[in-house]
Amino acid sequence: MRASAAPETIYSEMLLELAGLYLGRQQINEFGLRQLKARAERLCAVDAISGMEVKGHIALLSGDSVTGRDLLDRVLTLAGPSAEITLRYMQGLQQRGFSSEVAEVFFRNTHVFAGNVMATREARQILASHGFLDAANDLRLELNKMNAPVAEVSYAPGEHLLAYFDGDGVADSDTAPVVGFVRNFLYEQGVILQRVGISVVPADDGMPSALLYELEVNVPAERAAELEWDLYGKLEEEQFPLELGRRILFSVTADPKST
Q1: Three-state SS string across 19-30, please?
Q2: Among 39, 106, 170, 229, which has the highest number of CB atoms less than 10 A from its own CB?
Q3: Mean pLDDT over residues 33-59, rounded?
């Protein structure tokens, strides 16, 4: 980073570094985080809100979720309505294993997405990938109102054929806890969730349709298979409702780039 760079350039560079740390492209270590925090302090001297946001994400990466959330909540208050800051907050929480908190941040800040097509699409994907299907469908309707309908068929993370999912009797209060449990299980195993693909398994032989969550992680195929086996064992121990187990399915797949 150039010492003479403009504050907005420094801020953008630091956000890219944070994204790399969250996604596992760069290794998280104490020395690196200390250096990043020192740079954030310097940024605070010229742009207090941007510097505070960076410090909040550094706290999340350091495992201090209380400080991280406090700082990021303050940023949202001080910065005014910002879909981009809200999305980064949601993404940071999801990468650090705080599944239920992701939706909480969204529901407290729904107004910032009004009229913003790109941010609304991203928020919809995030919510769906955490099991908040009703909320994702609500955003689908909002996108339709903005003349930006969601494609019926898509393989982007979090996009799915909800229109073909018979969700009767399945509410967010049912799906979100089990999806959150699965995501947290993977986080506790030390793997990074690279992608969440969601598709519908059609109704057949009197059985209702089901949702399949395809969870792509940064490990080889053999390790992914072990994780899936262990995951279903944990789900059985947790004793989620039997009917829910028929409606929400999971597969753990390897990142093609992992060997």
Answers
A1: HHHHCCCCCCCH
A2: 106
A3: 93
Return the SS3 of 209: coil
* Contact predicate 185/234, CB 8 Å: yes
Asked if residue 159 lies in contact with residue 207, where contact means CB atoms within 8 angstroms, the answer is: no
Beta-carbon contacts of residue 141 (< 8 Å; ≥ 6 apart): none
Residue 237, C-beta contacts closer than 8 angstroms, at least 6 positions apart:
none
Interval 74-103: pLDDT, tens:
999 999 889 999 999 999 999 888 888 999
CA distance 255 to 159: 19
pLDDT at 215: 94
Q: Could you tell me the two tokens for 159?
A: 């996009």
Contact between 231 and 214 under an 8 Å Cβ cutoff? The reply is no
CB atoms within 10 A of CB 100: 14
- pLDDT attached to residue 153: 37
Q: Which of 106, 170, 105, 158 has the alpha carbon at shortest distance from 134?
A: 170
Q: What angle separates helix 117-129 from helix 99-108, to the nearest 10 degrees? A: 150
Residue 166, pLDDT above cutoff 80: no
Residue type, 192: I
Q: Which two tokens stand for residue 170?
A: 């399945």
Q: Which helix (H) or strand (E) holds 252?
A: strand 248-254
* pTM as predicted: 0.85
